[in-house]
Write a structure and sequence with these properties.
Length: about 425
């Protein structure tokens, strides 16, 4: 049973500390094991990758079977419902169109006579995409990670995903990867896949950045290799928060809360409402819908441990709760969601109105579903086009322009005790130097 917390009395709740305990960033024992795996892959390359694949995935691969072949990709299309293939294509197009609007341009600016500054905006060369495997397949994650990279102009996209016991990759994942423009696909998962992409092996290319969700071992591996390559973020368990007033439909709200609860026992589903009636109706509806869910054991534990219905006095108070928790997904199921939006500062993806349900963002609308979790929406953004770009600063001074500021630069350098810096300016104006 989900708990109801009434904040109208002015008292705080331990729900905030309870949610903080979900963070995957403090698993010291997991981190120690991951660091060992990463070091081994860095040292021994393909040999270590194959050993860990046998150990963790129970699949005995050889080097010749590590990379997915064109034949396997073509075969995948025969195993996926043609209707799903068409949906994948439409989703890809929506994701492409959304991220196309995020493009930035290089620029140059003439600040004063003889001074030009600017910024060059260039795509990364090689990007690694990690796609989870195991009991569920997520072709949507393939699209969300690979399509923006393609829009950005990344030269090579390398995907890793764990194989099944039959040594194959889920066909829907292969179809999505092909439709998204992934260049190379390797049958490897877990921390060993992240390490292989970060450092490169005899078979798997070294990448500039690794993106995509994964379990705690993947998250800790990304944390470990950060600095050797870039990463998108360290994602934690999924979460949703719904803000509802008396106009909300409790059936819709309960369904949306459960849509995230079924992900993981650590997932968090929270309703913040100004209506006590809605709170009680949603509580009843959750029980009714939970009873018929295929993943009811997972969703039920998630709701019991990390779910809550919070009653507040006003929508302003609701926004305070939202901004404090900084949820991954936020739904505003209120009479005027656009007005309520003005008070929201911290959220990964925001869904406005009763018919803008969270699964739209997961699969089809276009905005990215790789989102900051565990309160990191306070300072992280959804995966976006700029994640696949790099910027270079441009500086150009003529001799006359440098002469006008040389004394300022020399003074600044000498104040920091960096005489060679000062001299690099001074020598350009000594007698006998070219003018």
């Amino acid at each position: 049973m989900i708990k109801i917390i009434d904040l109208r009395c002015g008292k705080d709740s331990d729900i905030f500390e309870n949610l903080a305990s979900r963070s995957q960033l403090e698993y010291r024992d997991v981190l120690d094991r991951v660091e060992e795996i990463v070091a081994n892959v860095r040292r021994n390359g393909d040999k270590a990758v194959l050993e860990y694949t046998a150990m963790f995935d129970k699949v005995q691969l050889t080097l010749g079977k590590l990379r997915v072949t064109e034949k396997e990709i073509k075969e995948a299309y025969t195993k996926v419902d043609p209707k799903l293939v068409e949906v994948i294509k439409r989703s890809r197009d929506n994701i492409w169109n959304f991220h196309e609007k995020q493009k930035e341009k290089s620029w140059f600016s003439t600040e004063k006579e003889g001074v030009i500054v600017g910024q060059l905006y260039r795509p990364l060369e090689v990007v690694g995409v990690y796609v989870p495997g195991g009991t569920a397949a997520y072709p949507s994650s393939v699209l969300m990670c690979a399509v923006p990279a393609k829009v950005a102009g990344v030269s090579k996209i390398v995907m890793t995903t764990p194989p099944g016991k039959d040594e194959k990759i889920n066909p829907a994942i292969l179809v999505a990867a092909n439709e998204a423009g992934v260049d190379e696909i390797y049958k490897v998962g877990g921390a060993q896949a992240v390490a292989a992409q970060a450092f490169g092996t005899e078979t798997i290319p070294k990448v500039d950045k690794i993106v995509g969700p994964g379990n705690i071992y993947v998250a800790m591996a990304k944390r470990t290799v950060y600095g050797y390559c870039d990463i998108d973020m360290i994602a934690g368990p999924s979460e949703i928060m719904v803000v509802a007033d008396e106009t909300a439909n409790p059936v819709f709200v309960a369904a949306d809360l459960l849509s995230q609860a079924e992900h993981d026992i650590l997932a968090s589903s929270i309703l913040v409402t100004t209506s006590e009636d809605i709170a009680k109706e949603v509580q009843r509806e959750l029980e009714a819908q939970l009873a018929v869910l295929e993943r009811k054991e997972i969703a039920g534990k998630s709701i019991a441990d990390y779910g809550a219905i919070i009653i507040v006095e006003s929508l302003k108070d609701a926004a305070t709760v939202v901004n404090r928790i900084a949820p991954e997904h936020l739904e505003l199921c209120v009479k005027d969601p656009f007005a309520a939006l003005g008070d929201i500062k911290n959220a990964g993806a925001i869904f406005l109105g009763n018919y803008s349900t969270e699964p739209l963002g997961d699969y089809f609308a276009g905005p990215n579903h790789v989102l900051p979790t565990s309160g990191t929406a306070r300072f992280f953004s959804p995966l976006n086009l700029s994640d696949f770009m790099k910027k270079s600063s441009i500086i150009s001074y003529t001799r006359d322009a440098l002469q006008k500021v040389k004394d300022d630069v020399i003074l600044f350098a000498e104040s920091e005790g960096l005489g060679a810096h000062a001299n690099a300016i001074r020598v350009r104006f000594q007698d006998g130097q070219d003018k």
